[in-house]
Amino acid sequence: MNKKLLILIGFIILKFILQYVLVSSEYDLQRDEYLHLDQANHLAWGYLSVPPVTSWFSYIIALLGNSVFWIRFFSALFGALTLLVVWKTVETLKGNLYALILSALCIVFSSLLRINMLYQPNSFDVLCWTTFYYILIQYIVTERPKWFYIGAVVFAFGFLNKYNILFLLIGLLPALILSKHRKIFVEKKLYFALILGLLLILPNLLWQYNNHFPIVHHMKELAETQLVNVDRAEFAKEQVLFFIGGFFVILSSFYALLFYKPFEKFKFFFASMVFTLIVFLYFKAKAYYAIGLYPIYIAFGSVYLSDVLQNGWKRFLKPVFIALPLLFFIPMYFLAFPNKSPEKIVAEKLETHRWEDGKEHNLSQDFADMLGWKELARKTDSVYGLFPKSENTLVLCDNYGQAGAINYYTKKGIKAVSFNADYINWFNLNLYYTNLIRIKEFEENSNEFKETSPFFESAFIGGGITNKYAREYGTTIFVFTKAKININKRLEEEIKEEKNYEN
What we know:
Shape: globular
Largest sheet: 5 strands, mixed
Radius of gyration: 25 Å
Number of helices: 22
């Protein structure tokens, strides 16, 4: 086993270890993770929230036992594979051992630690962006048509994972057209590869068509409730912070792509970066949507620096570039991860956090979204167990986080649902419901009893989330028994109304 391979294996092992130790056991899974895990029980070619690839990984995780270990494993795996692709890119660009180590450090000790902390489509999205760029480099170097087909498959899987990868294409196409590589568009095999890619994504496109393109409603809702709060200056600032330890490496790649002769054939990558960022800024995208852009530029920058820092006084800068990712990881360790109790994080008051609502909070939204779920599930289980015929009891939640968490942690076999996100398609109306457990987000002067109890013989509160640091703090479990109305009929009406609204 050669030296390079041993070092690569060491970095990969380190990557996996960090992904496990940077999350304290005091935290539950994050809100989105529960929805993605529940999709394994409802396999389809599309969902209201995301395309289908995440559900495939969730199905594998379910087969492996659905434990937190395996949930964290897959996110870490995608991060480790991103590291591997960058490593192979450096080798393709003829980088030496210094370039390999520098690129690995910049990848490992970056915001990817935070991205790969959660089981969300983002980790696989970054992997697909990086791999697609790597494939493009391979084609430029070898001019072998096989890379067209490999690229089509990677892009298709990226598309079936997260539509965000379309931004890659939007930024790349004008860059290629303006470069000498525009000749690629007269290659016949490129279009055969495009047909292959289209065939792979066709089932999802048909699902979107048959379901009246819910992605349109989802994007409109996202723009109205979240993207409207995105500040373009904040977006630009966060781009610097994502790979702060490798910032000068990325900056070096820009210079190298424009003026470094060995990279002359890759000059269009600079234009691609510019066009892609402009599109993100125009649409007021969330800052993390652009993270997939940067790993490949770390490869370019590392190779360039390994060459220009060979001789003279510049060689003394080599350890500086190696040290920067490690030095910047120190504050990142204390600020970016849930490795301390929420009480300690809030007490330290090191920074405030801007949530999707546009307001500042003392705890990161992701961290707040990782609290209170076990408590909610345990208390819901306790109430659910009071009914002798539990299958006649409907557990109806306000949002997908509540429903997903209850379904993940339940010991009673609860199948909680919601009118929110994908759960609207997962109601079992073949059961006849007579009792209702209503999981309600906290509201000042809630009218839930007043509005709902007249339709049942009795009602009481079964508990709620008491963790004051949880985003769901105050969420209440309302219990209504022996319905005086036909719950199923009311559900059908509500589902129809909600779907008509979405369409």
